Amino acid sequence: MIPRYLVDIDLNQLPVIDTDVIVIGAGIAGLFTALRASETQSVVMVTKKSLLDSNTRYAQGGIAAVISEDDSPEYHLQDTLMAGAGLCDHAAVDVLVHEGPLGVEHLIQMGTQFDIENGTYALTKEGAHSQRRILHANGDATGYEIVRALSEKAIATPGIDVWDNHFVIDLVTDQGICYGALVQKNNGERLFLRGKATVLCSGGAGQLYRYTTNPEVATGDGVAMAYRAGANIRDMEFMQFHPTALCYPGAPRFLISEAVRGEGAYLRNIKGERFMQNYHEQLELAPRDIVARAIVSEMEETKSTFVYIDITHQSEEFIKHRFPTIHKFCLDYGLDLTSDWIPVAPAMHYLMGGVQTDLNGETNITRLFACGEVSSTGVHGANRLASNSLSEAVVFGKRIVDRIEALSPLQDTPSVVYTTNRQPHAMQPFVERRLKLQKVMVRYTGLKRNRAGLQRGLDELNRQRAIFDTVLMEREEFEFANMLTCALLATTSALYREESRGGHYREDFPQRDDLRWCNHTIMNREQGQLEEWIEYV
């Protein structure tokens, strides 16, 4: 069994810092929740790098909300349920689509400047959306604009204390109650950060894969520490691979936004042929999992490592205005979006599963909440609808703060003492361990899976478990332990689910099976693997 804590601790021997609300992580979830909470509570935000290091910063497409008179919450709900492939929580989606517009208004009030055309907010359409409902900023730099606005406001807010370059090793719990977190400073000193509520906003786990659109910080820390603390972890088999990440020698897997296809781009194989008509009636605007697998199939058939995305039929003026960030990034590598077909391939993008919460963002551990990609609210189901992630963060961030305000102050903290007989670890560099884990995940728990591969992957991951019995001291060591935890959870869940649905595709079980598998997979450290059946309304 994975140990309860990654390090030995004795709370009686640690310095204690008190606050009302602890926010672990930044991004839109952490920043928005911290700002809302600071209106009535004291807040400490803990980030392992800085406020600007998060997946939100790289979000290009935008934020989905019903703004247009031609749109409706019912349309948005149906689109989300369709993409989620039968595993969405209807109540959670209903909350999202009805409260999303207010969340956008809150972002605007906090300083976010969305693009305006002809006196009204500019809206675009993305894959699997039936209406134009995606607000964007600076063309294709929506995430960066949101982080800019919220981080500036957070830094200027007296009630928020930002701790950059601090690493949260573990959550401190006793008898099913969360009392705060064990935090390590950059110099190696540790302390107990105590609060009446702890909110995980630590993002996803893109670094489990060698090819990802996620930043270096996305190592699944929140999911792993919540699992160790006894939280329910749900649907870890559902990984979303973005269909179109730049695939070019010397370039990172830079995201070529969904919105590029939303504005009419074609996908072509290396022969120059459009192919999406062979896979789905919505062509390039089909759900992401379908587009990603179609691209892989074309790559396999043509023995290529990429396909092309082509928007050259749009005007140069339009492309530069709508996609300035993507256009400039590609130019840096000698590719011109206005005249060249851009080579792309799928890359790990988003974790649909995570820490299970209720409609107020609360986990099965009292006083522990989760918001954003680290959470599993039930909104995304088996496949997230494009641009719903930013909406989810603000909608459930507000609900979390409303719930926290009703909490009573903490009573006496228990004297948690956890000691083991840990040994110094072997000297194999952690960068090598990390790369090996990423290769295992790409090979066996990637876009296409099967029993033999998943079992082999699980066996290889299990051989790394000895790390949990060693003395861990540095951030890269903690990150690897968290990545290994998430990789084990994801691969175990993927092996268990013998069907194909959304972001989970089994070559040996290629069909969706609602009679047997219309349920959630839940992993709990003490109770093992559980199931939760879908309740339809």
UniProtKB/TrEMBL annotation:
Source superkingdom: Bacteria
Pathway in which this enzyme or protein is active: Cofactor biosynthesis; NAD(+) biosynthesis; iminoaspartate from L-aspartate (oxidase route): step 1/1
Needed co-factor(s): FAD
GO molecular function ontology, one term from the record: L-aspartate oxidase activity
Localization per Swiss-Prot or TrEMBL: Cytoplasm
Reactions performed catalytically: L-aspartate + O2 = iminosuccinate + H2O2
The keyword Aminoacyl-tRNA synthetase belongs to this UniProt entry's keyword annotation: no
Top EC class, one word: oxidoreductase
Gene3D superfamilies registered for this protein in UniProt: FAD/NAD(P)-binding domain, Fumarate reductase/succinate dehydrogenase flavoprotein-like, C-terminal domain, Succinate dehydrogenase/fumarate reductase flavoprotein, catalytic domain
Domain (Fumarate reductase/succinate dehydrogenase flavoprotein-like C-terminal) ranges: 434-528
Domain FAD-dependent oxidoreductase 2 FAD-binding stretches: 20-390
This protein's UniProt keywords: FAD, Flavoprotein, Oxidoreductase, Pyridine nucleotide biosynthesis
Principal subcellular localization: cytoplasm
Record Pfam families: FAD_binding_2, Succ_DH_flav_C
Annotated EC: 1.4.3.16
Function noted in UniProt: Catalyzes the oxidation of L-aspartate to iminoaspartate.
Protein family membership: Belongs to the FAD-dependent oxidoreductase 2 family. NadB subfamily.
Protein name: L-aspartate oxidase
Organism this protein belongs to: Paenibacillus septentrionalis
Organism lineage string: Bacteria, Bacillati, Bacillota, Bacilli, Bacillales
Gene name as annotated: nadB
